[in-house]
């Protein structure tokens, strides 16, 4: 209808000079619209920034820099990474929620981790408004210790806590997914730690354990790999049932007889690396980035990294990523007593 009215206007405007001027103005608008449309079609024309809302060296950081880092080969622009740790991933995530929805700023986090932190801490923004871009893999939390203690298995670890050899456990910030997992290990599985020592990111947790600043910690299997290869960190158990691709011989706590298969810990402790865009980002831009990420998961270098590290790399698209976030926000409150976590975090 708009185009028909414009033609009628141009036809009748030729009878007067003023009308000709107006028509010329309309034609100029058409040219501007065409230029804008062409620019939209050319997306991206500038570098894309992926905010990693944790410190360097953790599982989220490793996955993003390896997988998403390979996507720039398919975009003709560079992908840049910014680590913005704090509040269990919520500070960097907030920056992206509030960023310009133009497709040039994304955030990487791993449901159910950061969405659970959001449910616990209730910051003044809606994480559920983020637009899903892609999920690119999965990995579990594991529990590990400094190698000097020669812990045999999860049962031995429980005994040592009960004997008073250990009282602390290290993990990411209070109110984060790792905090929730640690509380579940204590309350439902029987690991009697007393003091939770919080760090900004998984890399800091592994460093603390390797240096024996804290003797036992919880983190991702991929984030623990370097420390294990150096011989300074010993994986004790995979927390969820199903095991670890990074440490294929590592038994789960259920397999070691300290939990039951299907316990809530299984829901909480398996992470899915994913990418998200600010609310309102055009779907056309999201699709371009998602396609590049899909191609990146198939790159030879990424596949070699997955094989060498044992990380599971697998792609699903924007709809699946959006559904994953919605599912986590709906189901975690049924699994976790969020009020209790808040109260304990505040005490």
Automatic annotation (TrEMBL):
**InterPro entries given for it?**
BUG (IPR005064), Bug_dom1 (IPR042100), TAT_signal (IPR006311), TAT_signal_bac_arc (IPR019546)
- Recorded protein name is Putative exported protein
- Taxonomic source organism: Natrarchaeobaculum sulfurireducens
Give the classification, highest ranks.
Archaea, Methanobacteriati, Methanobacteriota, Stenosarchaea group, Halobacteria
């Amino acid at each position: 209808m708009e185009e028909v009215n414009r033609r009628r206007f141009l036809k009748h405007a030729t009878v007067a000079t003023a009308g000709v001027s107006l028509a010329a103005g309309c034609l100029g608008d058409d040219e501007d619209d065409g230029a804008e449309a062409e620019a939209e079609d050319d997306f991206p024309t500038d570098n894309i920034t992926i905010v990693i809302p944790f410190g360097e060296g953790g599982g989220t950081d490793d996955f993003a820099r390896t997988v998403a880092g390979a996507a720039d080969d398919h975009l003709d622009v560079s992908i840049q990474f910014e680590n913005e740790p704090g509040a269990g991933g919520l500070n960097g995530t907030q920056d992206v929620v509030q960023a310009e929805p133009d497709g040039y700023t994304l955030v990487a986090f791993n449901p159910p981790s950061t969405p659970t932190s959001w449910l616990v801490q209730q910051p003044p923004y809606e994480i559920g408004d983020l637009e899903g871009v892609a999920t690119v893999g999965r990995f579990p939390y594991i529990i590990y210790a400094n190698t000097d203690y020669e812990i045999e298995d999860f049962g031995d670890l429980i005994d040592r806590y009960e004997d008073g050899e250990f009282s602390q456990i290290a993990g990411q910030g209070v109110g984060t997914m790792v905090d929730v997992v640690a509380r579940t290990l204590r309350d439902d599985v029987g690991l009697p730690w007393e003091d939770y020592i919080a760090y900004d990111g998984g890399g800091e947790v592994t460093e603390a354990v390797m240096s024996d600043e804290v003797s036992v910690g919880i983190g991702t299997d991929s984030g623990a790999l370097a420390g294990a290869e150096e011989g300074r960190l010993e994986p004790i158990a995979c927390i969820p049932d199903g095991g670890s691709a990074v440490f294929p011989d590592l038994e789960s706590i259920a397999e070691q007889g300290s939990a039951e298969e299907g316990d809530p810990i299984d829901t909480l402790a398996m992470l899915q690396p994913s990418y998200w865009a600010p609310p309102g980002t055009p779907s056309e831009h999201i699709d371009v980035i998602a396609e590049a990420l899909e191609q990146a998961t198939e790159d030879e270098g990424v596949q070699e990294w997955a094989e060498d590290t044992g990380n599971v790399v697998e792609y699903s698209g924007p709809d699946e990523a959006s559904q994953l976030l919605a599912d986590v926000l709906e189901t975690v409150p049924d699994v976790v007593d969020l009020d209790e976590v808040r109260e304990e975090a505040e005490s």
